[in-house]
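Morning run. Coffee first, then this:
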Amino acid sequence: MLAAAYASIHLRRTRKHSLPGPSPWPIIGNVLPFRRAYLTLTQLRDVFGPIYTLRFFRTHIVVLSSHQVARELLEGKRSAAFSARPLPRIVELAGMDRGIVFEANATRLRIARNLLKLVLQPRELAEYRAHMEYHIVKLLNDIYEEPDDAVEHIRTLTAGITLRMSHGYDITGRNDPYVEMANETVQNFAKASKPPGYLVDWLPFLAYLPSWLPGMGFKRTALSWRQQYTELAVKGHRMAEGKVHASLTSKALGDGKPVDESILMFTATQLYTGGADTSVSTLSSFILAMMRYPDVQRKAQEELDHVLEGRRLPQYGDRATLPYVESLMKEILRCYPPIPAIYRTNEGEELYGESIIEKNSVIIVNFWGMLHDETVYPDCNTFSPERWLAKQSTQGADPLDVVFGFGRRACPGRHLAEELIFLSMASILALFSITKPLDSSGKPIEPNYEYTDGGIIFPASYRSHIHIRSEEAEQLLKASFNAL
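And here it is:
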């Protein structure tokens, strides 16, 4: 009887196939470069197909580099099976699993996502539109007065908008102490989640070894991150309780329904720490791209001039009448996705076709590979907003439907991000020209087009020359700023 059962199980498994992938080394498995692993994963896609497998020690890794495959596995009936996010051990030790980004408990995650709907749904966003426009005008004035610090001004923009929405807090300026404290948390998050992570993420037993042993410095690091993150969340929650502005915190506490304040506290905190830097990355890429592609900038400005006639700044309601600016935003996000890849896991064995996805695999959703797929985006390494104006563009995946993720873990801040990025880009182009800086002999200085590495990628440090387009644009800026 036991023999028959064994034979039955063996027969079923032999009918299944392993996913394709490179052959692993003994014991350690597949070795990938630490830097910009998403580029290597994309190269492997070209060899092994849109879904393939790797192994690192005993951990099975499944890489999805096709938006079609991602939707089949991460959306619809199968979405629950792949909705969990693997929790790096260093993140858990640092207490960063408190909040929506790394929340592992399904009930707490559902509560957190419902809390975010209080401010991030399109209907709720309308309440903050005037505040967004206020901060965009401040951004424009800051760029006018200090054009060399455009990226820092963008950081102030995202902080001002998201902290009003999360805590009802009005920042005091570029060096706001709470913003500096929040940015420290953002940096710690980036270090903790940067692939391939810490050794303890792959060998969890290290967390149980005594702190005095060599190589246990990660424990002290994690403890300091936990203390800093907790202090930020507690301070923000106390600060929000005394504010009169409508915010996530005030709405959750004021609707008369019981709320778990620990969930609320960290959800509100991550509204800023978990999302602001992605918009900073995209707008930084936008400035860099405008230096690199002056013809694209000119076409976008011609469209803006036609619609606005130089009489006013753009509004979000203009989006439908600015198709080239819309296409520019899509191409920025396609070519330079701020998050190149995210991670999921599956608690049970799953099948894709006749291939096995082992239980507890790490699922890498390779956004970079999806958005740089020659079969979907012909000439994919060419920056071309025009591809989104063509009738056949609908045959390819809209970058806006890829970069914000799939299924139950899709980014809840998509509507806010789209509105902020579009309106910022349109407003900057309406008033300013962005060119390469000149050296002492008057020759253009070519920017560094490299990107940083990590969970969120940014253009490497660069210089730009941003100047007001005309006297009329200058007068419009001054009138808009004086009206604040």
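The chain has a mean pLDDT of 89. Good start to the day.
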